[in-house]
Design goal:
single chain, alpha+beta, 6-stranded antiparallel β-barrel, 8 strands
Length: 166
Amino acid sequence: MQTTKTAPRRTSERRRDTLERLVAERDVWVSTAHPDHGPHQVPLWFLWDGRAVWMCTGATSVTARNVRTEPRVRLALPDTFDVVLLQGEAECFPDQEVPDDAAEAFAGKFGWDPRTEEGPFLYVRVVPKTVRAWRGEPELRGRVIMRDGTWLGQRPSGSPPGPPEH
């Protein structure tokens, strides 16, 4: 296995890179759990709206059943070196009740509109509470870039620059 040496990114750089990937990527691994049936993991298409991840799955799928019972989920972008993990709670929207702007953006990104399909679909929205991002072992320290729904390493507007972020 070949590894590449990279200088650890600052928190602001990790946040920028993570946001760029959330806009550009297509797939996310979704991990859910059910108290009686245990963990379940599946890849789904996703849309980042600038604040939340939107996914869509069949209304009777294991993922849909799990998030209705236990809304806590973990999401992972599919790269084991440039890791991005998100954690939050799922909010569910039946396909005929999803906000139009979210459904239109999802359809625009993928060229597929679940609202026009035969069977019922469920849109799942996750606002991250925690985000972790790292590239290899040198970045394990400082990998939390969002805590309690707040991006870390941001200065309040109008405040003077502080010491370098790590």
